[in-house]
Design the sequence.
């Protein structure tokens, strides 16, 4: 009965209680009870006198089955570990990595209590309103190549978002996904390795999908897909698309051992390219024009003297001159 009622509510903007009871052949009291159950399950249903009921919001469920049903990958995300709540998906993925979890294991959560951002910052997500996930990889690469995986992930996320929303997102080097000058996704890559071998890499991806209130400082720099598109995109669908895009990009990258075959695609989305940037090295700052990336994922910046410098991620921070991007 719930399914039929939801179908009715999705057909029209407002449906009267009378129409629901006649269509479903149940009493008005029964209609009210079903609506009340649906609200308990997280459906937001508005009741307006003389107009009827209006479905405002569908709960965004991301169980293991729901995600796997959408996913058309061979290995990325196939071993899916869903936790309703966890301190950080990166921390859990690394723990699973230590315990021997397979390449492609994906940890997904609805709620992080200790989410981690880059440079020791924290990463906050309100329950149910964002994607927080970490993909565990066991690449046959030299440890120095691991940072390139972050750029591979950025390309995959940007493509997946665009494919599902019709937006044209960009990448702020090395791995922030931005739209309209504001950040909608951050990526944190952590690695366990010895001198010449990677044990595992944990690629943590946080995408702002739903309703989020930002404080005045963040409001200038961050946005969410829902605020931008005004459309609800179920997280399980975007999770699946990211895994599919990642699997494709990762195989191309590993086949070459460099970013060369992905470089054009990455640069086509690189928000910094052709723009003036400020490079903040630990003891030195300079402005320049961003020319693109190297096949190793470093940023190419031409300084005022015309010299082209390569900027290595992690050591420095790069900002736009007039804003965040
Ligand atoms: C950044 O600072 O831009 C990186 C943010 C990365 C956040 C994601 S959310 C899922 C994963 N788990 C974490 O604790 N962090 C990453």
Sequence:
């Amino acid at each position: 009965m719930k399914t039929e009622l939801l179908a009715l509510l999705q057909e029209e903007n407002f449906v009267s209680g009378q129409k629901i009871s006649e269509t479903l052949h149940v009493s008005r009291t029964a209609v009210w009870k079903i609506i009340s159950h649906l609200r308990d399950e997280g459906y937001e249903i508005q009741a307006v006198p003389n107009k009827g009921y209006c479905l405002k919001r569908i709960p965004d469920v991301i169980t293991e089955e729901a995600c796997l049903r959408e996913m058309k990958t061979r290995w990325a995300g196939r071993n899916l570990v869903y936790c309703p709540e966890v301190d950080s998906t990166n921390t859990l993925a690394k723990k699973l990595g230590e315990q021997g979890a397979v390449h492609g294991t994906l940890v997904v959560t609805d709620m992080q209590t200790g989410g981690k951002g880059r440079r020791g910052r924290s990463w906050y997500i309100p329950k149910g309103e964002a994607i927080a996930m970490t993909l565990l990889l066991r690449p046959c690469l030299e440890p120095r190549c691991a940072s390139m995986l972050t750029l591979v992930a950025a390309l995959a996320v940007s493509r997946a978002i665009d494919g599902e929303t019709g937006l044209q997102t960009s990448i702020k080097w090395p791995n922030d996904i931005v739209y309209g000058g504001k950040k909608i996704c951050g990526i944190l890559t952590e690695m366990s390795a010895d001198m010449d071998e990677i044990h595992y890499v944990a690629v943590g991806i946080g995408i702002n999908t739903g309703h989020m209130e930002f404080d005045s400082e963040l409001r200038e720099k961050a946005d969410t897909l829902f605020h931008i598109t005004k459309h609800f995109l179920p997280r399980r669908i975007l999770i699946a698309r990211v895994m599919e895009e990642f699997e494709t990009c990762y195989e191309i990258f590993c086949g070459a051992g460099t970013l060369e075959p992905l470089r054009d695609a990455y640069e086509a989305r690189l928000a910094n390219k052709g723009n003036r940037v400020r490079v903040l090295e630990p003891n030195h700052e300079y402005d320049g024009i961003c020319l693109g990336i190297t096949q190793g994922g470093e940023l190419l910046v031409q300084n005022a003297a015309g010299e082209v410098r390569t900027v290595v991620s992690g050591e420095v921070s790069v900002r736009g001159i007039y804003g965040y991007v």
